[in-house]
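Request: Not sure, any thoughts?
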Amino acid sequence: MTSNDEEFVFFDDEVEGNSEFEIQKPWKILIVDDEMDVHTLTKMVLTGFTFENRQLNILSAYSGAEAIELLKKERDIAIILLDVVMETDDAGLKCVKKIREELKNHETRIILRTGQPGQAPEQQVIVNYDINDYKAKTELTASKLFTTITASLRSYQYIQTINQNRAGLENIITASSFLFELQSFSLFAKGILKQLTSILSLDDDSLYINSSSLSAFKDNDNIKYNIMAGTGSFAGHEQEEIDNVVPENVYDKLINAANRHESIFNDNTYTGYFETKKGEHTLLYLQWQRPLTNGDRDLITIFAKNVAAAFENISRNNDLAESQRKIISTLSVMIDEVSRENTHHLKKVTDISYFLGEQIGLSSAELHYLKYAAPMHDIGQIKIPGEILKKPGKLTPEEFETMKLHTAEGYEIFKDSPDEVMKAAKVISYMHHEKWDGSGYPQGLKGDEIHIFARLVSIADVYQALLSDRSYRKAWSMDDTINYINEQSGISFDPTIVDIFMKNHSKIIEICN
């Protein structure tokens, strides 16, 4: 091919070393055929093929079953050249079904090839199976194979772009409902990164990084940088230090931009640097394999500045919210120390509640709110007279009615806060004395009317309280406590949570210890 308009070219030895952009991440193509000659011939014909400056990595499987096992490990195969007749007459067709239905792989382009067209009629196969092309082996001359591979790679690339956009939008939508929480910013930034890399056809590997304001203040020459969001090979490393994740060449570019306090465009990478008013350093790393237009560069720059500004605003909001939480959490501990002899009660109740929340399938955001709100469940006791809180004997009916007011007092403390943790603390403090059968207080709520957070804290609170000494009684034995929890299933406690509690009791003992 000699036309400059063609998207695939064949390099000779002289041209290969002078490519403007380094060829990265080859397209993976899988040949599935029981004839060795088919593999050899196909690889020979496709030698030197490139598309969008990326070469081919051609894999081989010699049966449908072998192909499925390979596809379970290799999730980024772009094209499968699949024979119909292998270990069985319909092995290829069965393989298609498994790829689409069992592996849920709808991105990979499947080109069905057969040397026996009558064995699997084209119209019937096209209608009944999710394939993208059907060719007789005699049809696939060298030129037609080039055309088929190019068209399929372009289709695969478009589908990846669409799916990345969708995944990015899902992250943004999920994060937007609780955007002023720090962990949601990571989700938000990851969504934006996916959008940006797919819209501009950048490489999947991208990073958004920030430094601790404390480390930046204390030791400007030894700042620790943590990953806030990552895509591609950097995905899943959020909150880790870059030293342990990024390769040396990327690390050097990040540190160079940080040391120079400026954003740097190289031939095929961008390292953005921004410093917040708090002294935090934020870095953005992007890479690509094609020349960027001035418009592309402008979009990247605008994105980097806006995300840095968003991070600073969210960080400031988090600092304020965290200060409020610490004040109230400190008050909770003080109240706990006044009303109980066991000063570890709050910690144990929180850890048990969190563990049970994990077992019933709460989301990561819900677990986050529960973790920070559970210790505040008795904050309303700040309004209860000390002589009642510390009374060594049983409370009179009048004193008990006063004691019950701590739920409503807790609600009043949190009711006007927009912070999600405070909202969780509001429902926990108000409802943790409600009972499953409706006999609790202050509202007499029943069953699922009681918020799941309060149901979790309720059983953890009672369990830990019974096992602890109080000014008016000695601690119960473990057997008596467990029997009581079981007896109160469906009365005081949610039966589902009781079942989970009992099945995991040995783990709960470990948590308390």
User: Anything to note?
Assistant: The first strand starts at residue 27 and ends at 32. Residues 340-512 form a domain with the Hypothetical protein af1432 fold (CATH 1.10.3210.10). Confidence is low (pLDDT under 50) at residues 1-23, 175-182, 213-220. DSSP finds 20 helices and eleven strands in the chain.
